[in-house]
Each structure stands twice: as C-alpha cells, then as structure tokens.
Design a protein that fits this description.
two-stranded parallel sheet, 7% strand, elongated, disordered C terminus
Length: 477
C-alpha cells in the first residue's frame, strides 16, 4: 500500500519553470491515482502570494484545455506530462482529464489552490473561531489605539512590571515612546515563538539556584585542575620565569596576583579570585581567552602536545563558565522579561477576543495554538483527526506546496499535522502524499519568519523521523 503514497521534495531554482512543473505534478496525480478514485477536490495546492495562486490556477486550466482539445503545440505538453507521470497517457487518462476539466469549470470553488494565509483563515473560521465562540470578526493589521492604551495602562498600574519594562528598554538605549510601542508590536507579532519556547520547556526557571550552584562547582573544579597542571608545567620547564611573563594581561586583571608570587603558589593564589562569586560574575569574561602567554610558555615545538592539552582543557572550562554566567546574569533577566511578555499577551488576548478584531498574525497564532488543544481533538500524535476534515468539509489526500523555503515556523506547525496524516498511509483511502517545491537559495520572506532550513528538513520528516527543523529551532534557544 505504501507505494501509493508520494513524499517528494523538488528543488527548483528561479527561472526553471516551477509553476509549469507544479501544474504537471497536479495533472500527473489525477492520472496516476484515477483508478483509486482520486479527484481534483482532494488535491490542496498551497502558495505564498495571490499572484502565484492565480498563475498556478491559470496554468492548470490552460494545460487541461490543451490536453482535452489538442492542437499542434500541445504535443510538447503531453510529452512533458508523460515524463513526470513515468508512462504514456492512455485514452482512459484523457477521458478522465476531460471529465475532471468540465467538472472543475463548473465548480471552481472546489479547486483547492490558495495562499497559506487563506488556508489558515479557512481553518480559523471553520474550527478555531467556533471553538472560541466567535461567529463574526474583523481583520485589521494595525493595532487599535484603544488596545495600545489599555496595554500601557496595565503596565503603568503595576510598578514592578513597569520597572522591568522601562529598564529593559533603557539598557538598550531605547528611551522613546516609539521604542515602547515597537516592543509591544514585536512581542505580539512574535508571540508564537514565545509560546513554542514555553511549550518546549527550554528553560526551567524554578531550578535556577541549584543549577547555578552546580555549574559554579564545576567551573571552580575545572579551573583548579587547569591551574595545578599549568603550575606543574611551568615549574618543570620555566622554573626561572616570573609570573608576570607567564600570564596574559586579561589573566592578570582577573587573578590580581602579585608579580613576585612564587610559582609554587600560583594555583592557590589564582584560585582565590574564583572564590568570590561576585568577582567571577563581573570579570569572568576575562578568562574566555587562554590565561597563559603562549609565546613564552609553549613557544618550542617540544611543547606542542602540552599546548593542545591545555587548549582543549581551557575550552571545556570556558563552556562551563559561559553556562554559569548565563544562568547567573542572563536567566534572571530572561525570567523577568518572559513574565512581562506573558502579562502583556494575556491582556492583549482579553482585549482582542472581546473586541473580535484580529490581525493576520493573530489569526495564525490562534489557529496554531488551539489546533493542538486537546479539548478540540483536531490533532492527535501530531496528526490531524477525521474531525478536522469534517469541520473543513474537505478531505485532502495530496498537498502541493510551492516556494516551501518561505514557510515560517508557525505556518509549518499548522501544516505539519496535515502533512503527517496524508503521508501516514492511514485512513480509508489507500493513496496520498506531499510534494514540496522550493529553492533554499531564493528565500525572500525571512522578514516574516520564513525558515529555509525547513525545506532541508523535509526528507527527514518524510523518512518518519519525528524531529523537525521546528523542534530543532526551539530546542537550540
């Protein structure tokens, strides 16, 4: 049965006729699966612009007309279609295409070719809005002044929250009201990312103190071992040298060791600086570079092996130190900012859901968020259920996605359970599949969250591996 399921990535560069190829793939699916009952209504084509939607729709209808009403120039089209199909077109194929063409002309609304935003809006109207008891709403991509005023009013009424908000922006030298408004706009537009981070459990704030304590002990022990080995090395090969000549300036500034300190006391004296955790947090960055004077300590070739050992040990130490500084300096601030963002978004949700006025990014976020809500039962094990299709009054068996390199993470998360369902081999109909077309070199929608790495991750998803670029992206943050 699996031979009836298509999983294909087509990397087509600009100027290679992607629209033409996509239309041939569409017609090929109709011919290849007609004996299993495949109909055009079961093929969903996703594009990224209205212009692309119109071009693909026009190309499919034009090709159908040329095939069922052949003329001299249609011979090349037929050869190209047969090349994609992998066999010659039969008389039965042409009869089926003719019937499909006439039916499509009479029922153009059932030809499912739409932009990703249109598809998301369809899912929102059919499934999410009724779940939220929203039966009428407006679209406005500009935040209403009243909403903005309410958000600022909420912040100003909470002195602690306002201080976090104000100090965060001022540390970045953003002190104008425009900067404050930009922060609100960006927070709301990128809210899907905060939601994904929260879902991933990327940072366990509750365990910050014990985590930091454990990291500090690791930093201290690694540095102690490194200093002892370094002391042994210089006593063996540079016993007549002075400490000042052996250490770099950054190390001298951090360790604050006296120039006439005996080499026998080097490790103990240097380690004193790490006992003061405040000092470590303020000046620990000075140890990111090796603390020794390489030109003096490891100049000769006979020290090459020792040099490699110390560089490797120093890299391990720096990794632990960087993580410790992250938890001590960045994580507490992150915790405050994340709480600030949560309260802003909670207030924003109350206002928008009450007023029933949404931006396109709101529609995308609510669709993504509630599509996975267990109470809705639309997605199980990252795969859409039959209830999903019943609400849409359509059953997709094939998905063709154009310009896939411009798919954003949130769009991918909306499409992913449908993709997994049509390639799973489950269900009543024994056919289905996904064809994505794109070129990672031509990504143009990075400004709206497009992630070209998603195109590169599709073969891994098609092979059945659960990890995707979306999860990888979140787990790295």
């Amino acid at each position: 049965m699996q031979q009836n399921f298509i999983k294909r990535v087509i990397r087509a560069s600009a100027g290679t006729g992607k629209t033409y190829r996509l239309s041939l793939e569409y017609l090929s699916l109709l011919c290849q699966y007609r004996h299993l009952g495949c109909q055009y209504k079961e093929i969903l084509v996703i594009t990224f612009t209205r212009k692309a939607t119109a071009e693909i729709r026009d190309r499919i209808f034009t090709h159908l007309n040329e095939l069922v009403n052949p003329k001299g120039e249609s011979e090349e089209l037929r050869r190209n279609l047969e090349s994609v199909l992998g066999r010659s077109l039969s008389r039965d194929d042409l009869h089926f295409l003719r019937r499909s063409y006439h039916d499509m002309l009479s029922n153009k609304h059932q030809v499912k070719i739409m932009t990703i935003d249109s598809f998301t809006n369809t899912v929102f109207k059919s499934i999410i809005a009724p779940f939220l008891h929203i039966y009428d709403h407006e679209i406005d991509n500009v935040m209403d002044d009243a909403v903005k005023d309410n958000l600022f009013h909420m912040l100003l009424n909470d002195s602690e929250l306002w201080e976090v908000f104000r100090s965060f922006l001022e540390r970045g030298e953003r002190k104008t009201i425009q900067a404050y408004e930009q922060f609100l706009n960006t927070t709301i537009k990128q809210r899907w990312l905060y939601h994904m981070i929260d879902e991933s459990g990327a940072r366990d704030f509750e365990h910050t103190p014990p985590k930091a304590d454990a990291l500090y002990q690791a930093v201290r022990q690694q540095l102690k071992t490194l200093l002892i080995e370094f002391q042994q090395h210089v006593l063996k090969f540079h016993a007549d040298a002075r400490i000042n000549a052996l250490l770099k300036k950054n190390a001298k500034d951090f360790f604050n060791i006296e120039p006439d300190t005996p080499l026998e006391h080097l490790s103990d004296e240097c380690l004193q600086a790490v006992e003061d955790r405040d000092h470590l947090e303020q000046k620990g960055h000075l140890l990111f570079d090796p603390f020794w004077n390489g030109g003096k300590v490891f100049r000769a070739n006979k020290y090459a092996e020792a040099k490699d050992h110390f560089l490797s040990a120093h890299q391990e130490f720096v990794a632990s130190l960087a993580e410790y500084l992250l938890w001590m300096l960045a994580v507490p601030e992150e915790r405050e900012i994340r709480e600030l963002i949560r309260k802003i978004l909670r207030e924003y949700d109350e206002l928008t859901l009450r007023n029933r006025v949404f931006s396109h990014s709101d529609i995308s976020f609510y669709t993504y968020r509630f599509l996975y809500d267990p109470e809705l039962s639309m997605v199980t094990d990252d795969t859409v259920t039959n209830d999903f299709y019943e609400h849409l009054t359509a059953k997709y068996r094939f998905m063709l996605i154009d310009e896939f390199q411009d798919t954003s993470l949130i769009q991918f998360r909306i499409l992913m359970p449908i993709i997994r369902e049509v390639i799973s081999g489950a269900g009543i109909k024994e056919y289905g599949g996904v064809i994505v077309v794109g070129d990672e070199k031509q990504a143009i929608y990075g400004w709206r969250g497009g992630e070209r790495d998603l195109l590169l991750s599709m073969p891994r998803l098609f092979s059945g591996q659960r990890s995707t670029a979306a999860e990888d992206f979140i787990s790295q943050r």
